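Lay summary. Proteins are chains of building blocks that fold into shapes, and those shapes determine what they do. In this project we predict the shape from the chain. Here is one chain we studied, written as its sequence of building blocks.
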Amino acid sequence: MDKDRKNPLIQSFGYAFEGIWACIRKERNMKIHCLAVILVTLAGTLFQITASEWCVCLLLFALVASLELVNTAIEAVVDLVTEEKKPLAKLAKDTAAGAVLFSAIVSVIAGCIIFLPYLLELAEKL
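And here is the predicted shape, written in a compact code that computers can read:
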């Protein structure tokens, strides 16, 4: 068999989905992100947010989840390479986690901008 031959496309997708499911199963923070996606989706459906607002939500879902996947990959590689406490290993792990946190904070701010007017309108009706 030719070693330079690439995996069939469907097999590549399979590996990618394996990685996503492994992260959801094993990573507490990814479970929290998935719960947030479900809650925001329910709220968006309830309040009938606009197409533009849905696009913002979808992009932010993708950003946070993608960064969590990358963070998990970086942590796994660092742990594979060394068990010792090394400053560069700590920097790699901390900055990857920081990227996830930063995107999550910005997502919450954007969520407030999108959903607060709907919540205030609902409160006025009650």
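What the prediction tells us: The chain is about 85% helix and 0% strand.
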